[in-house]
Amino acid sequence: MKGKFKINKDKIGRLLPEIFESRGYGKEGFNLIKNIGALASSIDLKAFIIGGFVRDVLLYSLLKDKKTFQRYKKAKIFLKNELDLDVIVLGSAHRLTSLLSKDHPGIFKIERIKLHKDFGTSSVVFSVNGKPLKIDFASSRTESYRSHGALPSVNINGSTLSEDVVRRDFTINTIALSLNPEDLFSLKDTAGGISDILDKKISILHDLSFNDDPTRIFRAVRFEQRLGFRISGKTLSVMKEALNGNSMDGVSGKRIVSEFDHFFNENSPWIFFERLKKLGALKSVHQCLSFEGINKEAFKNISMNSIRYSFGKKGSQKLFIIFMAALLCSLPPALFDDVSKRLGLDSRVKGRIYLINREISDLEGLSMNFVKNMKGSEIYKILKKFSDEGLIYYVLREKWDKINKGIYLREGILDYLAKIRFVKPSLTGDDLKKAGITEGKLCGQVLGELKLLKIDGMLRTKTDELSYVLQNYGNKE
Ligand code: CTP
Predict the structure, then answer these.
(1) Probe ligand 1: pick from 203, 219, 255, max atoms within 8 Å of CB?
(2) pLDDT per residue over 417-436, tens digit each?
């Protein structure tokens, strides 16, 4: 396999415009990275894209190739809608980003820029074809870890590319793509990343990798399952040693939850948690954290249904709460508190999970109130006091419970989530004032009434609503 496969810079050069186009960045995305390289050259710096984007570009090229498509067809790449690039600069990243932001306003449209002086990094959000494109720039460095799980101390020492990559997690994330015009799109593979992509292997770079940063255990699973790769035998045994040595104890709950959140956003999150369980990684977080049939079924339902429900602006937050509730649902209350403490869940998140649990039992008690062909306004009156998360979780839970009680409640909730909760009267408070209803409390009451009538299809247009108001409240003030 390895021998047959070669990636040349012309091929990458041809694929990149296509990749930026397909993500909605048009030609501008491709031009942006070329311009960054040209600017770096003009001040004698070398800039490379490195990490996940390069790994995925290589996989993209393998997926595009008829000879290798079958082998890689399970790999999920470019999962996010917005691209997120990492650029490594041999020399000072700040020199490059200062120049980008100050001297070339016509070429680089910058939405936000953040410099982190101590770390020698800058985070820049460009506006490309009207869409945000985030690029993190870092000066090449070496890193050392004072204790397991702590954040590293950084040494920006003008290191070479091969010295810099040693601090990274896996070989497949160490391949660098040159942006300088004299070397445009050539690949620098100093740690054997291409060979591991061809072997579909996740390998660490050194034996202390998981001790330095135990969250890499989660990352290894993330890439393995997402890309359809496997963790290499050596890496697996180093991982097991780190787990047996309780390295996870040094990692804060916040960092662990952030890794969980990454899994929630993958295509089939339950597969990742099953693998974590098998490796003993969940138990290493907390002895009682597990992933049984009940969690798995709930995870499956949530993933499959999440697209169906409009979660609105705060969608990913709600999804996070629902997944956390599903993960912790099999724990008895005392253990729930203990595990939440280990995960560093703040009182807001804990409160929302509690609320879901309370709402579930309240909803169970309501199943008798729901009957066939119930009016939408009745459904609304009963369900409006529940949170979206509670309702969604209830329907999903009902499914995995396979207890067919409260079928009309279930139907009512589905109707409420899909339609009823979005119904709003066409008239506004101002319209009511113009119609002579000036008192605030009455105004609220009338709007509530209009909403219920609209839900039941009794009022269809704004004119219908106005006639109703004039008829019923016209002379009342
Ligand atoms: N990295 C690392 N160790 C970590 C986190 C990150 O070595 N614990 C390095 C890896 O080289 C990684 C890069 O930083 O490729 C960027 O991190 P991140 O954006 O989290 O990873 P991606 O590989 O881009 O993952 P994704 O595809 O999920 O965005």
Answers:
(1) 219
(2) 889 999 999 999 999 998 88
Between the CA of 216 and the centroid of ligand 1 the distance, in Å, is: 9
Per-residue pLDDT reduced to its tens digit, 173-208:
999 999 999 999 999 999 999 999 999 999 999 999
Nearest ligand 1 atom to the CA of 165 is 11
Instruction: Give the CA distances from residue 91 to residues 45, 143, 152, 271, in Å, rounded to whole numbers and listed in that order.
Output: 6, 16, 20, 41
Class (C level, CATH) for 9-201: alpha beta
Q: Which CATH class is domain 252-421?
A: mainly alpha
Distances in Å between the Cα of 148 and the Cα atoms of 95, 238, 240, 242, 282 are 33, 14, 15, 10, 18
CATH 3.30.460.10 domain span(s) along the chain: 9-201
- Looking from the CA of residue 86, the nearest atom of ligand 1 is 16
Q: Which atom of ligand 1 is nearest to the CA of 169?
A: 7
Ligand 1 mean position to 444 CA, how many Å?
A: 51
Domain with CATH 1.10.3090.10 in the chain: 252-421
Q: Judge contact between 143 and 164, C-beta under 8 A.
A: no
Predicted confidence (pLDDT) per residue in 315-364, tens digit: 678 889 999 999 998 888 899 999 999 999 999 999 999 999 899 889 98
Span between the terminal Cα atoms of the chain, in Å? 84
Of the listed ranges 214-223, 239-248, 467-476, the least confidently predicted one is 467-476
173 lines ligand 1 (CB under 6 A): yes
pTM, rounded to two decimals: 0.87
